[in-house]
């Protein structure tokens, strides 16, 4: 197969398909329904991003600021909770999970985070609660029994240094809950991921579960000012990462950047360098809407219309990746075959 001058070779191994925040292309993200729908569609792993409540319960939200993903703004009883905080050096105004007990969070309902791109998902607004990690684990184990197949967990610790600084650490309760559910071995179907470094090193001393160092094309770990992901993605940097992690979770552009016209460009050496260091490579995030796709893989001018996501995934498979995050599980599973 040839795509925009790139020769694509068929991958010999099926990469892991990781449901990014659940089936978030079809249901409001980080809800039990989004995770269950992803499992129905064949995802290998589901991804709950984890933050803490005021009473120390881990819940699934992409951010601790929840105005974009819940109806908290429409609850007058919580109007006085709106505030401005500095999270990882960024000023954010809204409502934050650490200011709510679990009981209070359970009175909120999830909503679609990208309503302009995913209007159909808005039909589910107001129907689903914010799930706890305990509920997510229970769902996965129930669905494993029903389907007879292994369904993995891929939790991300969100802003772990910040939460530790306010007395609500994420690592300890996460490891404790996973171990209680039977996840404590390096071969178990769990990956724990983070954009930070020190909390992954802390986790390395607490669990044998595989750890994933997340990386982006710009900036660096929030807990290590002056360190860049660019430096961490060099052969030397990757060798250092391999001392505490089992894989990297790389932004797509770090593996195949877009060229000056916005088309899919040529692969970098990141995958081969990571493999040489003994690290698996998982990339984020594949989405089917034209808005998110390279120019040469869009279908028409409507930014909300589906484009050629399968061709995009094929290019990354040819580059040798070991797994990928996607909002669209049906397409992601089909492209992994």
TrEMBL record:
Reaction(s) catalysed (UniProt annotation): a sn-glycero-3-phosphodiester + H2O = an alcohol + sn-glycerol 3-phosphate + H(+)
Keywords: Glycerol metabolism, Hydrolase, Signal
Signal peptide: 1-19
Top class in the EC scheme: hydrolase
PROSITE patterns in the record: GP_PDE
Pfam families on file: GDPD (PF03009)
InterPro entries named in the record: GP_PDE_dom, PLC-like_Pdiesterase_TIM-brl
Presence of keyword Transferase: no
GP-PDE domain: residues covered: 15-336
Enzyme Commission number, as recorded: 3.1.4.46
CDD domains: GDPD_ScGlpQ1_like (cd08602)
Family: Belongs to the glycerophosphoryl diester phosphodiesterase family.
The protein's name in its UniProt record: glycerophosphodiester phosphodiesterase
Organism: Blastomonas aquatica
Phylogenetic lineage: Bacteria, Pseudomonadati, Pseudomonadota, Alphaproteobacteria, Sphingomonadales
